[in-house]
Amino acid sequence: NGAAVNWSAPESEGIYNITVEVTDGNGGEVTDSITITVRANHPPTITSIIADKDWVTPSGSCHIRCNAEDPDGDELSYEWSASGGDISGTGSAMTWTAPEAVGIYTITVVVTDGYGGEDTRTLTVSVSPNPPPIIENLIVTATHKYLKEYSGGYKIGRKTSCDIECVVQDTSGELVYGWSCDDGEISGEGSMITWTAPDRAVEVTVTVTVSDATGNMVSKSIVFKVVACSTCTFG
Question: Please, which residues have CB within 8 angstroms of residue 131's CB and are 6 or more apart in sequence?
């Protein structure tokens, strides 16, 4: 004979004892207990997502790897998706095969720790029959002290601004720059813009797409982690 119960952990971390007492109705009894440790879960962090090519030809392929870490040492799972083309492989590395259509495609990875914690990161790959412009770097600068580089991009104070310059490898043709962000505001145009962080703590991706005279395009993104305290010293 036996019995089972479901125990729901409290909100507070700690060590909890669960005791059972069994009686037979005739004065006999026995007790036993187990100890369960309740700890808070810390989500994983994606440190980088890297493709071995910035562009591929139609139906071409590239290898993409996601580097992530978990402060609790939890085993991580990786879920990949793409706005077009096909994905093969599982885990932290996979192969993406481009579709026939020319364009810029977004590759997304979601990393989970099995306890509700997750992190997401994207990158873009250009599909073109000819090499697109090459973005050498995105240079981020600010005149204030509320901007700091970290492994995943930049930390910046809320409602503060920074300049972002897109440096493209020398080319004789005319280039067109298109900028976008999923939060905050962009001002300016061309190879350099100013981005102003929103008034809340959030992770924001700023993306530039560079097009040449033949229609070839390439994109590059940078991630900002907006810190809620705009008066903090970043040091």
Answer: 55, 216
Total domains present in the chain: 1
Classify the phi-psi angles of 190: left when phi > 0, otherwise alpha if psi is within -120 to 50, otherwise beta: left
Is residue 210 assigned to a domain? yes
DSSP code at position 222: E
In our burial notation (b when 16+ CB lie closer than 10 A, e otherwise), range 45-81 reads: bbeebebeebbbeeebbbebebebebeeebebebebe
pLDDT digits (tens, 9 = 90+) for 22-58: 998 888 999 999 999 888 889 999 999 999 998 899 9
Find the farthest-apart pair of alpha carbons in the chain and give their distance in angstroms, rounded: 97
pTM above 0.70, yes or no: no
Q: Determine the straight-line distance between the first and last CA of the chain, rounded to whole angstroms.
A: 64
How many residues are listed for the chain in this entry?
Answer: 235
CATH code, 224: 2.60.40.10
Q: Is residue 77 part of a domain?
A: no
